[in-house]
């Protein structure tokens, strides 16, 4: 039994379930896909549902929208969860759908929650039945469709992206829950300060806001006024989760802040990753990469600092290890930047791949008798590159930080020629 079988007005249910919208008119937000005249609203109202994927952050209304569809459609509605779904269970659902279609002319809508967790072989088993119309698929996911679903399945579904509710929407929903007969029935009031804080700290997660509101309301010893400290206490154990899509976006923001020498931004995204439970060693690896890729020869010490941060995280663990990560983050962000090493290696790779494998010049081969040590003989002339590419240049120093000394030496040499 799940929420699709329950009467949402039952008193024992959490506030978030009691306040779940029953119709499109009660549904709040997502006007970009559900406003009057929009395609999704039309196909729901006319019961012309086609296969779709509802993608969006937690508590943005995906399950509520699926519930509304289940209540308004004449099709048989089957709810499955991808986390535990097997090929055998899917085949059973498809077999029943075929029988209903053949015997009664009744369509079947299969809603698969957490569809991103569905194994690829199960997705492949689902594919032909979505394609031939045996079932109408509604997939729900908080994660990245590009990373977690096979392209053939995505191409056969219309993707609707739901957005996190904004601050004002959240405030209105919270006030509605306080006043609604399905909610707290006007038994409690909330201060403006507490309302503002709750709408902000829930991070767009309506369910989280409702849970905190209900906990704060029922923890009052006297009176009926919910104040700021009550909401803060209700949120003491909040977990700031992160989806796959958010993960890649936040990592990208962190990396671009490092490259752009934006220290405050880099520290903010670092804190977001750590607070969301991202593996600190993953963050350390990104710092090591940027120490060479973006700082490079402009400050060679950056690589040592990044490696030291990685070792510190392994040695002292968390939470103290986060200070070493912050140390390296600030050092890399504040360092002068040069990507000459990155470009030089990329250019060398391009030459290697665009030419045949030239033999090593005889004078620098292992055991060569014609090799002359340039340290002892600084004026010696040796052949270091194959003759065919002896004029190729890969490394171009940049006039930045420590590398400016190399830059001056290189271009002073060029000017003397």
From TrEMBL:
<dbReference type="Pfam" id="PF12002">
    <property type="entry name" value="MgsA_C"/>
</dbReference>
<protein>
    <submittedName>
        <fullName>Replication-associated recombination protein A</fullName>
    </submittedName>
</protein>
<keyword id="KW-0067">ATP-binding</keyword>
<dbReference type="InterPro" id="IPR051314">
    <property type="entry name" value="AAA_ATPase_RarA/MGS1/WRNIP1"/>
</dbReference>
<dbReference type="InterPro" id="IPR027417">
    <property type="entry name" value="P-loop_NTPase"/>
</dbReference>
<dbReference type="InterPro" id="IPR008921">
    <property type="entry name" value="DNA_pol3_clamp-load_cplx_C"/>
</dbReference>
<dbReference type="InterPro" id="IPR032423">
    <property type="entry name" value="AAA_assoc_2"/>
</dbReference>
<dbReference type="Pfam" id="PF16193">
    <property type="entry name" value="AAA_assoc_2"/>
</dbReference>
<dbReference type="InterPro" id="IPR003593">
    <property type="entry name" value="AAA+_ATPase"/>
</dbReference>
<dbReference type="Pfam" id="PF00004">
    <property type="entry name" value="AAA"/>
</dbReference>
<dbReference type="InterPro" id="IPR021886">
    <property type="entry name" value="MgsA_C"/>
</dbReference>
<comment type="similarity">
    <text>Belongs to the AAA ATPase family. RarA/MGS1/WRNIP1 subfamily.</text>
</comment>
<keyword id="KW-0547">Nucleotide-binding</keyword>
<feature type="domain" description="AAA+ ATPase">
    <location>
        <begin position="48"/>
        <end position="165"/>
    </location>
</feature>
<dbReference type="InterPro" id="IPR003959">
    <property type="entry name" value="ATPase_AAA_core"/>
</dbReference>
């Amino acid at each position: 039994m799940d929420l699709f079988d329950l009467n949402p007005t039952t008193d024992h249910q959490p506030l978030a379930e009691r306040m779940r919208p029953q119709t499109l008119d009660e549904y709040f937000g997502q006007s970009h896909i559900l406003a009057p005249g929009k395609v999704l609203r039309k196909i729901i109202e006319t019961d012309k549902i086609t296969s779709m994927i509802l993608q969006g952050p937690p508590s943005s209304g995906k399950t509520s929208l699926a519930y509304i569809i289940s209540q308004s459609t004449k099709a048989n509605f089957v709810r499955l969860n991808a986390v535990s779904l097997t090929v055998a269970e899917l085949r059973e659902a498809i077999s029943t759908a075929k029988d209903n279609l053949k015997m009664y002319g009744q369509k079947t809508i299969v809603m698969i929650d957490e569809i991103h967790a569905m194994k690829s072989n199960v997705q492949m088993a689902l594919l032909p039945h979505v394609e031939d119309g045996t079932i109408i698929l509604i997939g729900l996911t908080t994660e990245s469709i590009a990373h977690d679903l096979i392209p053939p399945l995505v191409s056969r579904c219309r993707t609707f992206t739901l957005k996190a509710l904004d601050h004002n929407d959240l405030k209105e929903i919270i006030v509605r829950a306080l006043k609604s007969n399905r909610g707290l029935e006007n038994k409690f009031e909330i201060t403006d300060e507490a309302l503002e804080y709750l709408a902000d700290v829930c991070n767009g997660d309506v369910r989280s806001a409702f849970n905190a509101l209900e906990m704060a309301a029922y923890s009052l010893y006297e009176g009926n006024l919910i104040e700021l400290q009550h909401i803060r206490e209700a949120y003491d154990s909040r977990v700031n989760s992160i989806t796959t899509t958010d993960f890649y976006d936040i990592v990208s923001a962190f990396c671009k802040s490092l490259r752009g020498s934006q220290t405050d931004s880099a520290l903010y995204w670092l804190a977001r990753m750590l607070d969301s439970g991202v593996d600190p060693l993953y963050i350390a690896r990104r710092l090591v990469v940027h120490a060479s890729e973006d700082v490079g020869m402009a400050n060679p010490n950056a690589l040592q600092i990044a490696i030291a941060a990685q070792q510190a995280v392994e040695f002292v663990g968390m939470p103290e290890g986060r200070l070493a990560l912050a140390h390296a983050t600030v050092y890399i962000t504040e360092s002068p930047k040069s990507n000459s090493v990155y470009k030089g290696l990329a250019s060398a790779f391009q030459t290697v791949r665009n030419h045949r494998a030239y033999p090593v010049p005889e004078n620098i081969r292992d055991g060569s008798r014609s090799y002359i040590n340039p340290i002892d003989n600084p004026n010696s002339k040796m052949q270091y590159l194959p003759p065919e590419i002896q004029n190729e240049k890969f490394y171009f120093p940049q006039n930045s930080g420590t590398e400016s000394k190399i830059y001056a030496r290189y271009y002073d040499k060029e000017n003397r020629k």
